Amino acid sequence: MQEKIYFYYTNDLHSNFSQWPRVTQYMREVKAKRDQSNDSYWLFDIGDHIDRVHPISEALLGRGNVSLLNDIGYDAVTIGNNEGITFSHQDLFHLYDQATFPVVCANLESLDNKLPEWLRPSLQYITLHGVKISVIGLTAPFNDYYELLGWHITDPYETIEKLIQQVKESSDVIILLSHLGISEDEEIARRFSDIDVIIGGHTHHLLRTGEEVNQTIITAAGKHCYFVGEVILTWDYEENRLIKKEAYTTDISDYAIDVETNQKLHILQEQAEEILDQTIVITEEPIQVNWYEHTEIMQLLTDKIKQETNADIAMFNTGLLLDGFPTGKITLGDIHRVCPHPINPCIVELSGAEVIEVIRASLTKEFMEFQLKGFGFRGKVLGRMIFSGLHVITGIHSNGQEYVEDVLMNEEPLGIEKIYSVVIADSFTFGRLLPEVAKSERKTYILPDFIRDFLAETLKENYR
User: Fold this and answer.
1) What is the DSSP string of 51-95?
2) pLDDT-derived band at 139, boundaries 50, 70, 90
3) For the purposes of burial, counting CB atoms within 10 Å of the CB of 77, is it exposed (0-12), middle (13-18) or buried (19 or more)?
4) Domains along the chain?
5) Span 278-294, mean pLDDT?
6) pLDDT confidence of 135, banded at 50, 70, 90?
7) What is the DSSP string of 331-397?
8) Which of helix, strand or coil describes residue 28?
9) The whole model's pTM is what?
10) CA atoms in the 13 A half-sphere facing the CB of 99
């Protein structure tokens, strides 16, 4: 006898709620189909379902996302970095209190040794005909953030090695829910042949029909839930083993919308707007924002963050503010709309020579017009860098390109070898946009406050 076992999953929704009614419709249809056929099946989410770029996730602190997962009937989720490092310790501790499913994440620890009741390192399911399935969850180890929030993420490889030893004797099948990214998934598959399936996310990769590495099938469904993933395993009872592993993703971008979910999202949106309708300041004149020019609000914000963090230098790009503010009442919702990014300030240590190189790079046309995707940035272009603690003197070449003539601090040139503390958007501590920032050996992330929290204080202090 053979038994087919089905798993359906989503990953990296990032609160793209316009797509969620289609996810609901798809999941309800496949659940009805599997129930009718009397098949064994489970539903998983692989993390980054929440993204505080959306007012529903911002105002309800992710609880609206959990409610939407409840409505479909998910069996388990793991957490992504957007769940793990964009909430305070207490907010994450209680995020899943009302969940009707467990959260499986083996490498999340609390520095106070108190773990929430909803957290499990692994789960075991048994199919209708007796196949035993162990499910393990792992999330990416952004410990520079997690430890400032009172958590710790253990090494994924050490964690998975210990757990596999624990579960393999009592399991026929081992599945990993991995919010680690495609490179890590492939390496785990190479090292641990006992894992049958890795369902991934984090790096937003789309594997339409899966990828086989060392007898493990790896799968993932891209970003924003335009695709939903399916894994089909075939167990042969005579041979007492899996004889087939299949992985597919279905494009649901034009799928029908579940009406009830759509209505619920409207209700959640109204609740969010009510929460965010808190007046921060009432202005007598509009506040202008320009991505390519110096503006008062951006200078004041940069000055504010420098003051609050006691850094020697502050530099923040104008693209962090998506729009200006009209005359009149400015609410929390307005601030979230203008500065929606889940981005924190970060203090790095740079030499004077490195500071000058960063300034030069940031004032190029290519930098200002760069359309960054990811690293927390939810804007259009990076925009012009604004400085505090420095006097940057520039000139214009004959071709119209701006260049740096001199950089002064307290009317004196920067010390080329002197080390300065520089506070900057944490987006630049990743990737290659500003290599000097990314490779700085000392980084201090300012948590849990986002840039918009400093923006709110800046408005209160300067625009009453």
Assistant:
1) -TTSHHHHHTTTHHHHHHHHHHT-SEE---HHHHSSS-HHHHHTT
2) very high
3) buried
4) 2-271 (3.60.21.10), 278-462 (3.90.780.10)
5) 96
6) very high
7) EHHHHHHHS-----EEEEEEEHHHHHHHHHHHTSHHHHT----BTTB-SS----EEEES-EEEEEE-
8) helix
9) 0.94
10) 25
